[in-house]
Design brief:
Elements: E1 6-10, H1 26-38, E2 46-50, E3 62-65, E4 71-74, H2 83-95, E5 114-118
Parallel strand pairs: 1-2
Antiparallel strand pairs: 1-3, 3-4, 4-5
Bound molecules: FE2/S2 (inorganic) cluster.
Pfam family, one: DUF1636
Protein name: DUF1636 domain-containing protein
Organism: Thalassospira aquimaris
């Protein structure tokens, strides 16, 4: 059985709207809240922490990837307001054939947050 697609969350991010770092960092808060949300659900993706996705000025940053799927980096994810939308996006990503979630099918709060996309391995 192939591995599930992954939602990678940068745990060292500071949110782009913040004046200063927090302890724990905004990215860690995002990861912890997503872990809590996912705990009792059988979701079609795995959650992984990552240390820096090289998108530090537009934190919080996350990356979606999976076998045979386009990879996506998203930025400016607000750990206070976007948890449910991020979970929705990751589910749609995991359930898509090639990792492509059409703009109109993305949660509205994340529609303009794509930083980069990466072609799949053959
Ligand atoms: S610290 Fe999160 S992208 Fe660099």
């Amino acid at each position: 059985m192939p591995a599930k697609p992954r939602l990678n969350i940068c745990i060292t991010c500071t949110a782009s709207h913040a004046d200063a770092q927090t302890d724990p960092r905004h990215g860690k808060q995002l990861f912890d809240r997503m872990t809590e949300l996912c705990a009792d659900q059988d979701l079609p993706f795995d959650l992984r922490p990552a240390e820096c996705l090289n998108n530090c000025k537009s934190g919080c940053s996350i990356a979606l990837n999976g076998a045979g799927k386009w990879g996506y980096v998203y930025g400016n994810v607000d750990p206070d307001t976007m948890i449910d939308d991020l979970c929705d996006l990751a589910q749609r990503y995991a359930e898509s054939e090639e990792g492509i979630v059409a703009w109109r099918e993305r949660p509205e709060s994340l529609r303009r947050n794509v930083i980069a996309r990466i072609p799949p391995l053959d």
